[in-house]
Design brief:
heterodimer, A: alpha/beta, Rossmann fold, five-stranded parallel sheet, 9 strands, B: alpha/beta, 3 domains, six-stranded mixed sheet, 18 helices, about 60% helix, disordered N terminus
Chain lengths: ~300, ~475
């Protein structure tokens, strides 16, 4: 797959994924060096979306492996179709003269492919998204490390299967626990912050075209202001910003003010404590005051 | 060729030196990463500083924490030529100005025409003081000079006062400088863009008592987040091992009778759950209030992972906090109430009396499954009584864990720490990082232990349908 930076940039624009040059260049290098890309950042900053976008840009299938504690090889790699093998033995025992060999039972047709094996055995280059890798157990992480370093899988009954095309691997982590050095060493690293006001309003305009420029900017300013509250249990994600924007459009709103934010707060803060905190620390007044202040162009509000 | 080869190797040497600098700053990076970086540079325009930096960042940095170190090191190492000359000129000018200031300072702080015997460091500190403070000191020296004409020699006293004053300013400056005492590399360059990352690290690594009022909301949010994360992990850990035990042969045979005895569907034993039971006793005396309320908040956040959580506070007497929490008053309110109007206020901390009361009045809460967490700096009246009471509690419960907010290097200085430490496990908890490590380490170990025990139970005499 030939990758070129300009085409990649254009691809991201066409798909409507707005990211900065740093992210774009890191993705480009991951593709060029054929290395997995590890993306870390708070929940809802667009890590998973980057994996999905990459599949769209590269016009290939996305294979997703959602990690959770307790995930093991049988869910991630392969499993023998035990029931089917038993049925085959039963059928075979009733048919005289048909001698069943062990190899017949352990052939590819009895193998249930899970995401990792599917990505490796695919004849085309696929995008493999290993989502929330920090949620899996350390043992599984060690196993992942083996797969991602050689892109080969050993199945005792079949032998070693090599990747025909090394997949584009994107790993995401919410930083809930520190990943092992070995796994990190094999990846290129990208850290996502919440977008600044300028970029978020660009994202809003790109995803909800019905929104006018100044309206999108107001929404982005309000969101950045809410996110700047350090005590929030869960800061509004980009997806929530977009949902909120769509809701405001559906309600036929043309501007944001304190009352609108307060009435639709459920879409942004989905936790009672966070909602109370909003009313205590910001409130309708706070939003009105914020929107009365002049907009600082490209105001870089780094929120974490 | 002969011209390019040395140039290239010079570039690689430079990159290796940069990697060494990053390593010295604490990044874990090996040759593989350096090779990746060199390979990445082949795919970009290395004359473009931003692209060059991005390529190095993507290949050499592996965690959020390292980002800030990378940014700082990059700016220090890869200085554009024009800026380099500018830095050099600025540094020379600064040195010249400094030596001039030192000369003036010696004149300003002279007593009877003779400069006071201050060290170079003290002189530098003096020159960096605000104008008003400098004038105050000068005035003080002059007034002392005038006074000496009538009284006894004042020079030794004057020297002590001036030095003491300078020491005060030195310690104040250290307190005000961000990241001091957090093991940062200092340098005071400032202005790093990864400020939020930096702040979280500072909050995690600073002594809890040193946190400023402005830091408290963020610190509490951090505690809340960490404790919820830990609760989730503890629950996962239990669910994972609880979901599948050994093969349950009897149920498997029964379930597969309808298939003529072929084993289509396997049945497993479920492990018996033995969730954690925690009982926290926090010292809320004046010196301990901040630490204990942080630990209380952290443990309170673990409710999802704990079957039974009991909270107590004490200073001179014991106070049972759980009933008020069940009435949903909120932890913050309860802590405020206990500290402001509590009956247990004013006397000396009495660990012995509090533990004896716990043992006598709340004995039913102390079971062989309970893990008791004590939060105290061990300072107490009547130490021998306290030791005896702790021993009694310990014999009744599964484990007592002591969280001590004193810095570990001070532990050997106190007899009480040594004596309590011989009886129970003691862990430092003076920073949020240490608190999290101590609690999560102990609870994970306890969780595993409970599971193993439950697993054994299963194998020996129990199974479930």
């Amino acid at each position: 797959m030939q990758v070129d930076l300009t085409a990649l940039r254009q691809g991201f624009v066409d798909v409507g994924y707005i990211c900065d040059e740093n992210a774009l260049l890191t993705v480009y290098l991951a593709l060029k060096l054929q290395k997995p890309l590890l993306i870390e950042g708070a929940p809802g900053v667009g890590k998973t979306e980057l994996g999905k976008t990459l599949a769209k840009v590269l016009q290939t299938e996305l294979i997703r492996l959602q990690c959770y504690e307790g995930l093991d090889e049988t869910k991630a790699l392969y499993e023998w179709n035990y029931q089917r093998q038993l049925l085959r033995i039963q059928i075979d025992s009733r048919q005289d003269g048909n001698k069943l060999e062990e190899e017949d039972l352990f052939s590819l047709s009895y193998l249930l492919e899970r995401p990792l094996l599917k990505a490796i055995r695919s004849p085309e280059k696929k995008v493999l998204l290993i989502d929330e890798v920090d949620k899996c157990d350390p043992e599984f992480e060690a196993f992942l490390l083996e797969v991602l370093s050689d892109f080969q899988i050993s199945i005792p009954e079949l032998g070693t299967l090599h990747a025909e095309n090394i997949p584009v691997v994107v790993l995401t982590s919410n930083n809930e626990r520190e990943l092992s050095d070995g796994l990190k060493r094999r990846c290129l690293y990208l850290y996502f912050n919440f977008p600044d006001v300028a970029r978020e309003s660009k994202i809003i305009r790109s995803r909800v075209p019905a929104v006018k420029d100044h309206f999108a900017a107001e929404i982005a300013r309000v969101i950045a202001h809410i996110r700047s509250q350090e005590e929030l249990r869960k800061k509004p994600s980009i997806a929530e910003t977009l949902d909120w924007t769509r809701a405001l459009v559906a309600l036929d709103k043309k501007r944001v003010d304190g009352a609108v934010v307060s009435d639709t707060l459920n879409l942004l803060l989905k936790n009672r404590q966070d909602q109370l905190l909003f009313h205590r620390k910001i409130g309708k007044k706070g939003i009105d005051q914020l929107l009365q202040q002049p907009d600082t162009p490209g105001g870089e509000q780094r929120c974490l | 060729m002969s011209l390019t080869a040395p140039a290239e190797s010079h570039f690689e040497e430079n990159m290796a030196a940069f990697a060494a600098l990053l390593r010295a700053e604490g990044l874990v990076l090996g040759t593989a990463e350096l090779l990746d970086a060199l390979q990445a540079l082949r795919h970009i325009d290395i004359a473009d500083r931003t692209a060059f930096k991005t390529a190095l960042r993507a290949t050499l940095v592996k965690s959020e924490r390292d980002l800030e170190i990378f940014e700082r090191s990059f700016e220090r190492y890869f200085i554009p030529l024009t800026a380099q000359a500018e830095h050099l000129r600025e540094a020379t000018l600064q040195m010249e100005a400094e030596s001039a200031r030192l000369k003036d300072a010696a004149g300003e702080l002279s007593f009877k025409g003779e400069p006071l015997p201050l060290s170079a460091e003290e002189m530098l500190l003096y020159t960096s003081l605000p104008e008003e403070q400098r004038q105050n000191l000068q005035r003080f020296v002059q007034e002392t000079e005038a006074a000496e004409k009538e009284m006894r020699p004042l020079r030794p006293l004057l020297e002590t006062v001036v030095k003491g004053h300078l020491r005060y300013w030195h310690s104040r400056k250290e307190q005000l400088s961000p990241g001091s005492g957090a093991g940062g590399s200092g340098g005071g360059a400032g202005g790093i863009s990864g400020a939020p990352v930096n702040r979280e690290r500072r909050l995690r690594e600073s002594d809890i008592r040193e946190l400023s009022r402005a830091d408290l909301p963020a610190a509490k949010a951090l505690i809340d987040r960490l404790s919820r994360q830990l609760a989730r992990r503890l629950v996962y850990q239990r669910q994972r091992s609880a979901s599948r035990g050994a093969l349950d042969f009897r149920r498997t045979v029964r379930a597969n009778m309808r298939f003529g005895g072929r084993l289509f569907s396997l049945k497993y034993r479920r492990k018996r759950r033995s969730p954690l039971q925690l009982l926290l006793v926090g010292d809320l005396s004046a010196s301990m209030k901040r630490y204990s309320s942080f630990v209380l908040q952290f443990i309170y956040g673990l409710q999802a992972a704990v079957a039974n959580l009991e909270l107590f506070s004490f200073a001179d007497t014991l106070e049972y906090l759980t009933p008020a929490l069940k009435e949903q008053t909120g932890l913050e309110h309860i802590l405020e109430r206990v500290v402001l109007e509590g009956e247990s206020w004013g006397g000396g901390t009495d660990i012995g009396a509090s533990l004896t009361e716990l043992f006598e009045k709340y004995r039913e809460l102390l079971t062989h499954r309970t893990i008791v967490i004590m939060v105290s700096d061990t300072r107490t009246v009547r130490l021998s009584q306290a030791l005896a009471a702790l021993q009694k509690v310990q014999e009744r419960v599964r484990q007592v864990i002591w969280l001590n907010p004193l810095a570990p290097e001070e532990w050997s200085r106190y007899r009480s720490v040594r004596e309590f430490g011989e009886l129970v496990e003691m862990w430092p908890c003076n920073t949020i990082d240490q608190l999290e490590k101590a609690v999560s380490g102990r609870l994970f170990a306890a969780n595993t232990y409970l599971e193993q025990e439950a697993g054994n139970d299963d194998q020996t005499y129990s199974y479930r349908r």
